[in-house]
Every structure is written in structure tokens, then in C-alpha cells.
Amino acid sequence: MRVGLFIPCYIDAIYPEVGIATLELLERLGVEVVVPLNQTCCGQPMGNEGDQKNAASSEQLFCNNFEGFDYIVGPAGSCVKHVRMHFDAIPQTEKVKHVRKTTYELVEFLTDILKVKEFPWASYKHKVAIHNSCSAIRGLHIQSRSEWQEPYFNKTEQLLTMVEGVTIKQITRPDECCGFGGTFCVTDEAVSVKMGQDKVADYLNHEVDCIVSPDMSCLMHQEGIAKRGKAPLKFVHIAQVLNNGPF
Fold it and tell me: Each residue of 198-238: pLDDT tens digit?
């Protein structure tokens, strides 16, 4: 298969190592990966605020960049959720429908499409807690939702159990929002901070070393909260762990 690698803006600008880890991981698994160099924002920030006029140009450019691939894969649940569920600022042509249908978040691509059974090169000797974002849980359904009282599953956990040395700790409220929420953390700063503090406290109560997530935006928010509180926690994207680093 031929995959177009979608790197969200904030990963490109702040966490390029996550994009590199995603590329290397997919290539380790035998996937032909292409990185369209003209890609920009998917349009999510504008779309979230109801600015469909400015979202449209970003959405159209996204489709132009990624229309020729079997799958589009991105290491970010919220951005992928926007493409799959809210990419409606532009006419819904067959090309647009194809792009929406074939865009996957990394964890769901590894579990649902590639059906990966092992990561023999990976070792990560840490006690970790898993944070799946609200978009990944409620939108992409990579984890069971507690409010639905449905049978338990967690695709991120499924992948991490294949990594040597990982000890997964179950926190008290695993699918609670961390408070990032994109523009929410700007418009409702005090509420956002308190939610992040609650999340960090949950990690500390369960004596974890590291928080692993498919969404670096949530980790960015939580890491900021942890640093200000001098909490000894690491925050790492799952692509880095599955690609055997960082240590």
C-alpha cells in the first residue's frame, strides 16, 4: 500500500521528532510512505470555531495533497477526527469523500488496517499511564467510553502490551478530558488548568513514570501543567515508544 503521511502543524513546529518516529515506524512495518511537502493545516482550528470560510481553503489544499494515496495516516486523533467527521466546508466531491474515508489516526491504522502483532525491536522499561484524547475516544472510538458502559477495549493499550518492558498502570479516570481542547484552553483558561491539574494528580497517585498518548497536543498541555507543578513525569507520543525511543 502507498500511504501519505499527514503531519499536523503543531507536530511540525514543536515536536518534529514525533513526525520522524511515525515515518520510521511505518517504514519498519513495510509501508511505502510519502510525505507531501506542500501540506499545511487541515483546517481544524478554524472549523472548531465555526469559521467555515477560512477552513475551506485548508481543507481543499489537504485534499489536493492527499488524494492520490491508498491511505492517509496522521499521528494525531483530533486532526484526523476533523478530516473524517467535520470536513464539510468544501463541496463533497468523490475526491473529498475518498480522502475522508481513507484518513486514519496512527493507532487505529496499526490495529485495524495493518493488524500489527509485534514490535520486536521495541523496548520501553517504564511504568506508563495511557491518555487517549477526547477526539480519539469519542470521535474515532480507539477506546471504550465509560459513559456508554460498553465492553472494555483500548487500542493504544493493545499496542503497548507488545513492547518489552512496559508496565501499564490503570489510573482512576482514564478517559477524562485533560483540559486542552484546542481553543478551549485559551477561552476557558482557569477551567482548562484545573482539568490538567486533576489529570496530573491522577498520574502521581498511581506512581507512573511516563504518560503515553497518540495525541501530542494533549501531552503538550499536560506537560506544561506538570512542569509548573514540578511533577517528575515524562510525556511521550506512542509513535516514539513503538519505534524504540526515546529512553
Answer: 999 999 999 999 999 999 999 999 999 999 999 999 999 99
Contact of 216 with 10, CB cutoff 8 Å: yes
**Cis check: omega of the bond before 246, within 30 degrees of 0:** yes
Q: How far apart are CA 1 and CA 26, in angstroms?
A: 11
Q: CB under 8 Å to 82, separation ≥6 — which residues? A: 42, 43, 44, 47, 48
Q: How many CB atoms lie within 10 A of CB 49?
A: 13
Cell of residue 61, nine digits: 489544499
**Per residue in 22-73, pLDDT tens?**
999 999 999 999 999 999 999 888 888 889 999 999 999 999 999 999 999 9
Q: What are phi and psi of 227, to 5 degrees?
A: -65, -40
Instruction: Read off the pTM.
Output: 0.94
Among residues 18, 22, 43, 44, which one has the least CA distance to residue 31?
Answer: 22
Q: CB neighbours (10 Å) of residue 50?
A: 8
CA-to-CA distance for 213 and 175, rounded, in angstroms? 12
Rg (CA), the chain: 17
Whether residue 222 contacts residue 84, with contact meaning beta carbons closer than 8 Å, is answered with no
